[in-house]
Amino acid sequence: MTSASIPASAASRSPEEARALFRSGTSGPTAGWAAGHTQANLISVPADWAYDMLLFCQRNPKACPVLDVTDVGSWTTPLAPDADLRTDLPRYRVWENGELTDEPTDVVDRWRDDLVSFLIGCSFTFEWALSDAGVPLRHVEQGRNVSMYVTERPCRPAGRLHGPMVVSMRHVPPEHLSAAIEETALLPAVHGGPVHCGDPAGLGIDDLARPDFGDPVAAEPGDIPVFWACGVTPQAAVMASRPPFAITHAPGRMFVTDARDEQYRVA
Amino acid sequence: MTSASIPASAASRSPEEARALFRSGTSGPTAGWAAGHTQANLISVPADWAYDMLLFCQRNPKACPVLDVTDVGSWTTPLAPDADLRTDLPRYRVWENGELTDEPTDVVDRWRDDLVSFLIGCSFTFEWALSDAGVPLRHVEQGRNVSMYVTERPCRPAGRLHGPMVVSMRHVPPEHLSAAIEETALLPAVHGGPVHCGDPAGLGIDDLARPDFGDPVAAEPGDIPVFWACGVTPQAAVMASRPPFAITHAPGRMFVTDARDEQYRVA
Q: A-chain residues within 8 Å CB-CB of B120?
């Protein structure tokens, strides 16, 4: 899937307006939408798998910082009380036995009464802090989805769930590296500081130009690739661990909440 | 239970030495022991209750920041690989249907194969940061356990678990208040910044001299009472929610881990 450019008006949309657009079919990535509002990854699994998933998140907090867990069967969350998790994301993925079987724009017909939904912090949230600190965002400048890669670093398993860590990558000019690390470290609920800077081989990534999810993003001369743990990690766990059923967001197509980024800042 | 004074040598003990002493019967509070090493609250529940407990922790992260969750039946943790969770705390509490039925110094005879153990961050951990920042610790100066109170603030329920937030209180001179808040805010894994400063009535606490757990601690003139969410909160949830069985630490008698406080500092 290639990405539509981010509309110029996206940043000034309220979360409600953004969700209404996604509900009515707008399906592009959500980077740059609804300035200052927290975005979330979605993973919904049958109740029988909920403990394993919650424990997997607890054991891998950089990749899977949990912002909310719904009650069984519920499609609502206090993070956006008027939202419907089945319709309000731009695009979903449906998984059966670890295989991707569909990428619809809503999952009303696929919902099950036994689903428990996990909303997991997303690095799009800290991009406003990066931008405010003067750190350029190459993918937003280029109107593309962020680049994401499956690494060779294993997550700590939990029950039946195991899999590799997924990371998002941003090209950062060296003079902005310190600010990029400091700003994101103060936001552990949305992945916190980077897990790796520099040579992609350190994470087992062969070619930055061929991301596993999202779009390739061009570097400017001197840029250093900086890698943050990514909320697509549960999807890699679904692929590796093959639960009978799961619904997730499509990479880069997040749930836009009513929460403000500021409320997740540590100090 | 009144507290023995903290031995002068406690701070310089290694975590292994501290656990060996507790294993052989030393049963006092652990504030001031094993300088710079992370301490943890313990709550062990039957596997049937583990999801509710993990979700309760996720929904109440100030009170219940999870440091580790064991596999079912296991009494070991990566936080201290050579430790035995059944013997290495100074004192335990055994709960049946929400009633406290015993306070033994080990729980080898009470262990069950279906127990899942949660290790939850403890504010004793951040006392080293407070001390390094020049903040006086009245309870340590007075050789007493920290004062803890059941508040009138409800936790967010999770499944069958509900109950009030418990807090620990430290008297802080006003000139040290800023440092106390800043230092602890950077340690969200061990309760983070305070939940309340000043008038105890704001938390529904009638009389600071009559704590619900721990010892009364005398204030110096001008001191302000500062309240942090406390890892005894799961015990209040056990009392309110009455699971058939649980084992916890006794308030103030923590599990001393091999982990260093520094590894939980956000920035």
A: none
**CATH 1.20.120.140 correct for A12-121+241-264:** no
Using alpha carbons, select from B9, B58, B32 the residue that is nearest to residue A71. B58
Please name the residue ranges forming H helices in A47-194: 50-59, 127-132, 138-141, 177-185
Q: Where in chain B is the domain with CATH 3.30.2040.10?
A: 127-229
Q: Where are the alpha helices (DSSP H) in B136-259?
A: 138-141, 177-185, 233-241
Question: Which strands, in side-by-side order, build the sheet including B196-197?
Answer: B147-154, B164-172, B224-229, B196-197
pLDDT per position as a tens digit, A145-199: 899 999 999 999 999 999 999 999 999 999 999 999 999 999 988 999 999 999 9
Classify B171 in phi/psi space as left (phi over 0), alpha (psi -120 to 50) or beta.
beta
Half-sphere exposure of A189 (CA within 13 A, CB side): 22
CATH 3.40.1640.10 domain residues, chain B: 12-123+241-264
pLDDT at B6 over 70: no
Contact A44, A89 (CB under 8 A): no
Q: How far is A7 from chain B (nearest CA, A)?
A: 35
What superfamily in CATH does domain B127-229 come from? PSTPO5379-like domain (3.30.2040.10)
- Contact check, Cβ <8 Å, A267/B58: no
Taking an 8 Å cut-off on Cβ atoms, the answer to whether A266 and B192 are in contact is yes
According to CATH, the superfamily of the domain at A124-229 is PSTPO5379-like domain (3.30.2040.10)
Task: Identify the residue whose tokens are 């696929």.
Answer: A110
Nearest to B186 among A69, A192, A266 (CB): A266
Options 1.10.1740.10, 3.30.930.10, 1.20.81.30, 3.40.1640.10; CATH of B12-123+241-264: 3.40.1640.10
Q: Which of B12, B38, B20, B19 is nearest to B259 (CA)?
A: B38
What ipTM does the predicted assembly reach? Answer: 0.80
pLDDT digits (tens, 9 = 90+) for B85-126: 999 999 999 999 999 999 999 999 999 999 999 999 999 889
Chain A residues closer than 8 Å to B266 by CB:
185-186, 188, 192, 266-267
Tell me which of A97 and A143 has the higher pLDDT: A97
Q: What is the pLDDT of residues B220-265, one digit of tens each?
A: 999 999 999 999 999 999 999 999 999 999 999 999 999 998 888 8
